[in-house]
Amino acid sequence: MSLNHTIPLFRFLLQSIVVLLLWGSFAPAQTNVVFVITDDQGYGDLGCTGNPIIKTPHIDHLASESSGLSDYHVAPTCSPTRCSLLTGHWTNRTGVWHTIMGRSMLRKNEVTVGQMFADAGYETGMFGKWHLGDNFPYRPEDRGFTEVYRHGGGGIGQTPDVWDNAYFDGSYFHNGKIVPAKGFCTDVFFEQANSFISKCAKEKRPFFAYISTNAPHKPLHCPQKYLDLYRDQSDNIAAFYGMISNIDENVGKTRKLIKELGIADDTIFVFTTDNGTAGGAMIYNANMRAGKGSPYDGGHRVPFFLHWPAGGITQQHEVPQLTHAVDIVPTLLAMTGVKKPEGVKFDGVSIAELLDPNVDVQWPDRFVISDSQRVRDPIKWRSSAVMSQKYRLINGKELYEIAVDPGQKNDIAKAHPEVVATMREFYEKWWAELEPTFSQTSEIHLGHPDHPVVNLNAHDWIQKDTPPWQQAMIRQGRQNKKKKDSPKTFTHNGHWAVKVIEDGKYKISLRRWPVESKSAINAALEAGDNVIGPQLPFRARPGVAIGATAGVLRIDDKDLDKSPVSANTQDVTFVTELKAGSHRLAPYFEIEGGELGAFYVTVTHLE
User: Is 49 in contact with 42 (CB distance < 8 Å)?
Assistant: First the structure.
């Protein structure tokens, strides 16, 4: 960063320290936080941001009495946004730069906002979508959340989720145990959150409630009454917008509950989303270019509204300054007086003074970065946006002046080489700092005394090509062939990165279907039931038989043991000695033509 940026930045840091002290001094003793984040809903998918079709009266009302960030940015996909939002760190620093492939597990050394609030005496609840790891030590209950009610993986029906789950009448993980539920998924998650909020309020315990919906992420399903709101639209838009209207109604119910409990004044209520729209751009996109996954603003500029009566935030107040997901944790700490953990250094800054409508802020120019890697290992400049208040540098090459060109149509890089050079320099330093951390693979722990049984699934295979991340792929018996492989010869090229905590004897059970399916390795399955909506749930595909003849135990690229697949057997089990340390676990089935990775593996520490 140039000297011209350094001087105002120094002044800004001094202002931020003063503001943090002031917020800490005057914040109520018990300031609760309700944080709602939705999945795949973009900036333009709200009535209050200009959408002429969608019906979101409750969120619109929230916006009318909140401070709203109109130039707020996240990552272009879900897991990367969530890691930044929960830690205050750049996505790539945390090890989460993808949504699958072992690259969606939040590194063990990261401290989440849930842990920070729990350490301050708060009850901390997480409801809905986590998508930062499904095994110890990456689950929300391992990261500071005292009450957890969630689905598995990145969405209902994905590979880590309970088998055959769909958006209605599913089963979920409640503090680690699978429990059945009735109703539409979003309603269930809000109901669980509301029960948590009510319990905390009645016990006069401060709380942090993180309500993270999987909707409106595909597949597109919602109750009929919400589909009926959009009868004149296409089936996909009706379902996408219907899911959002359902979320909106739930936001209204939760806000009403908070008022009835008498805690509204001392509760910070936040609504935001995790990336650009996945389905609404063709209807309305606030003049932005592209949507989910894109480095252009349509991929990562999203809504953010914060309401807090005790903090004087009760009126519509637009914040036009450039902000980023990494700013949210330091902001919440500043507002509530919760202390930053010793040794933690945030990549973001508190924006508490920006959110205060009564403070006139002189905010310095700054650079922030959003990128979408979605590969096994990060690639420099890949799908990246370096942003300042005035400019956007895309992929290190294209330059746009965002205020006069919100659609990012006129590349002015050649006319402003000095701006390109300055922004490239910032990115180069940013990359150089983070690059040494990229090799720090997040490993699933085996043999921990408190977690002797670990269930692995193919979602977290580390490999160059895409692993079977959702249950339709499992049902199809997806082979993951490399292009160079012939149809009759293919090998299993993925593995789980595991860390064995204790030397000892381990039982490793290979499955083609998950434990809860109770199905034999070579069984074919009928398609599951459909649900309301224009798309099929992942379960509504037949499950093909694979014709496995043997199971093979492969560890650290060596085939250590082999056992035949018997008729009607549900698993092939090996017992082996494992040494403490890092290993590559890649068991597979022999089938006609080659190897098929065991989609599900259970590892049990026997000693």
Answer: no
Q: For the segment 51-72, what is each residue's pLDDT rounded down to a tens digit?
A: 999 999 999 999 999 999 999 9
CB atoms within 10 A of CB 560: 13
> What CATH number does the domain containing 564 carry?
2.60.120
Rounded distance between C-alpha atoms, residue 103 and residue 296, angstroms: 23
In a domain, 11, yes or no: no
pLDDT at 29: 54
Handedness of CA 101, 107, 108, 111 (dihedral sign): negative
- Say if residue 278 is in the same domain as residue 413: no
Total Cβ atoms within 10 A of residue 267 = 25
Q: Would 554 be classed as within a structural domain?
A: yes
Q: How far apart are CA 581 and CA 83, in angstroms?
A: 26
Same domain, 327 and 452: no
Which pLDDT value is given to residue 480? 53
Which helix (H) or strand (E) covers residue 80, if one does?
helix 78-87
566's CB contacts (< 8 A; 6+ apart) are none
List of residues 6+ apart from 73 with CB closer than 8 A: 297, 300, 301, 302, 322, 323, 324, 325, 368, 370, 385, 387
Residues 455, 549 share a domain? yes
**Whole-number Å distance between alpha carbons of 427 and 429:** 5
What parts of the chain have a pLDDT lower than 70?
1-29, 479-488
- Host domain of residue 120: 31-361
Q: Clarify whether residues 297 and 376 are in a common domain.
A: no
For 78, the enclosing helix (H) or strand (E) is helix 78-87
Instruction: Classify each residue of 212-248 as buried b or exposed e, where b means 16 or more C-beta atoms within 10 Å of its C-beta.
Output: bbbbbbbbbbbbeebbebbeebeebbbbbbbbbbbbb
In CATH, what number is assigned to the domain containing residue 433? 3.30.1120
Q: Which two tokens stand for residue 201?
A: 């309020």
- Residue whose tokens read 């890697």: 373
The string of DSSP letters for 518-572 reads T--TT--B------SSSS--TTSSPBPP----EEEEEETTEEEEEEEPPTT-S-E
Q: Are residues 422 and 485 in the same domain?
A: no
Shared-domain flag, residues 281 and 139: yes
The residue among 361, 384, 419 that closes a domain is: 361
Residue 294's domain is classified under what CATH number? 3.40.720.10
Does 572 map to a domain? yes
Cβ partners under 8 Å of residue 77, min gap 6:
99, 274, 275, 292, 293, 372, 374
Domain boundary among 361, 392, 415: 361
The reply to whether 81 and 101 lie within a common domain is yes
Q: Tokens standing for 403?
A: 């205020």
pLDDT in tens, 445-485: 999 999 999 999 999 999 999 999 999 999 999 865 555 55
pLDDT of residue 23: 44
* Sheet of strand 207-212, all strands in order from the earlier edge strand to the far edge: 177-180, 171-174, 147-150, 123-128, 207-212, 32-38, 267-273, 304-307, 67-69, 317-319
Residues 239/268, Cβ–Cβ less than 8 Å: no
Closest CA to 500 of 582, 586, 576: 582
Measure the CA–CA gap between 32 and 200, rounded to whole angstroms: 10
CA 243 to each of CA 162, 184, 536: distance values in angstroms, whole numbers, following the listed order: 21, 10, 16
Instruction: Tell whether 394 and 325 lie within a shared domain.
Output: no
